[in-house]
Design a protein that fits this description.
CATH topology of the largest domain: 60s Ribosomal Protein L30, Chain: A
CATH class of the largest domain: Alpha Beta
Radius of gyration: 19 Å
Shape: globular
Strand order of the largest sheet: 1-13-2-9-10
Largest sheet: 5 strands, mixed
Structural class: alpha+beta
Number of strands: 13
Distance between the termini: 40 Å
Order of helices and strands: EHEHEHHEEEEEHEEEEHEH
C-alpha cells in the first residue's frame, strides 16, 4: 500500500523561455531553476507539458505533406476541421468516434490511450500538427535521467502531462501520458477494502492548476510532498490490456 500523502505543494517553474524545435529540455529546466533560485529536492515530481516534449523531440507533421483520404474529408465536413488535420488524427489512431455529430473526435491512439483528436495538436498559424512523443514513458525516463545529471539531485520523478477533454462534459482536464520514477498507480485501503487509483493522473491534474494556463507560458510544474512508490513501469503499465493488444495489432511494421 502506498504511503499516505498529508499535504503537498505545487509551483510553476517560471519565467520559462519559449521552447523551440530540438531544444535540450532538461538543460533549459536546469537553467530556469538556477536563474529563478528554485531548487529540486529528492522526492520531487517534475510535471512537464507534453507539447514542449514534442517540440524538443521534433514531432511535427507539415500539412503540405499530408494527403487527406475520403474518410478524412467526410469527417472534416462534419467537424469543420481541416481535412489534413483529420488525416493526421486518423494516422495516429486505431479507432475513433464522434462525441457528437459535429465532434470532437475521440480516438484510441496507437499507443493505447483514448484521447480527443488522438492527442494531435493543430498549429493553425504554421499549418502543421504536433504529435505526442513517440514513447512518452521513454521520454519521461530520459528527461528524469538528464535532470538528475544536470542538477545532481537523485530520486526525482517525471510526469509528462497533456490537457484533454471528456466526451460527457464541456471543458478540459489534465492527465498523464508518460511517467518515470513514480509508480502510475497507488493502492489505498479502508476497512479492509483495497482501491487502485491512477496516481499519475492525480499528479498531472494537480499540476494543471498552474501548468500552461493561457498566457502563463508555464509548461513545467514542480510538486513536493506527494508520497509515491518508486517505479519506472510508466503509464503504459496501467493501460487496460485490451487497449494495449489493439494498439500493438495495428502498429505499423
Amino acid at each position: 500500500m502506498t504511503a499516505t500523502t498529508h499535504d503537498f505543494a505545487v509551483r510553476a517553474l517560471e519565467p520559462f523561455p519559449t521552447i523551440t524545435e530540438g531544444d535540450p529540455l532538461a538543460d533549459v529546466i536546469a537553467d530556469v531553476l538556477a536563474s529563478s533560485e528554485q531548487h529540486l529536492t529528492a522526492g520531487d515530481i517534475v510535471v512537464v507539458a507534453s507539447k514542449v516534449v514534442s517540440l524538443a523531440e521534433r514531432r511535427k507533421v507539415e500539412f503540405s505533406e499530408v494527403t487527406p483520404s475520403e474518410q478524412a474529408r467526410e469527417l472534416a465536413q462534419a467537424t469543420g476541421k481541416p481535412a489534413e488535420a483529420i488525416q493526421v488524427i486518423l494516422d495516429e489512431s486505431v479507432d475513433h468516434r464522434l462525441a457528437t455529430s459535429t465532434g470532437p473526435i475521440i480516438a484510441r491512439h496507437r499507443l493505447g490511450y483514448e484521447l480527443t483528436s488522438a492527442g494531435v495538436d493543430r498549429d493553425r498559424e504554421a499549418a502543421c500538427a504536433w504529435l505526442l512523443p513517440a514513447d512518452p514513458d521513454a521520454s519521461a525516463r530520459r528527461l528524469r535521467d538528464e535532470l538528475t545529471r544536470a542538477t545532481g539531485i537523485d530520486d526525482l520523478a517525471v510526469v509528462i502531462a497533456d490537457s484533454d477533454g471528456r466526451p460527457d462534459r464541456r471543458g478540459a482536464t489534465v492527465l498523464a501520458l508518460g511517467a518515470a520514477g513514480i509508480h502510475p498507480l497507488r493502492i489505498t485501503e479502508h476497512r479492509g477494502q483495497h482501491q487502485e487509483e491512477t496516481l499519475v493522473d492525480m499528479v498531472a491534474a494537480a499540476a494543471g492548476m498552474v501548468l500552461g494556463q493561457r498566457g502563463r507560458g508555464a509548461p513545467v510544474a514542480l510538486i513536493s510532498g506527494v508520497a509515491f512508490d518508486r517505479s519506472d513501469a510508466g503509464v503504459a503499465a496501467m493501460l487496460r490490456h485490451e487497449l494495449g493488444r489493439t494498439a500493438l495489432k495495428h502498429m505499423p511494421g
